[in-house]
Amino acid sequence: MVLDLAGTTSKLVNRVETHQTFIKQQRKYRRDGEVFRRTVEYNSQNLLG
Fold this sequence. Notes:
Layout: H1 2-28, E1 30-31, E2 34-35, E3 41-42, E4 45-46
């Protein structure tokens, strides 16, 4: 049971961290209320990557 609890806690923490990263990325590409795409491609290359 202790291992299951530790594994579940680890998964939950990972999901929260992933969600926080997603929110930070959304803010990064937001300006004046407009949400920009995460990729800008030119000659099949991602200019934002």
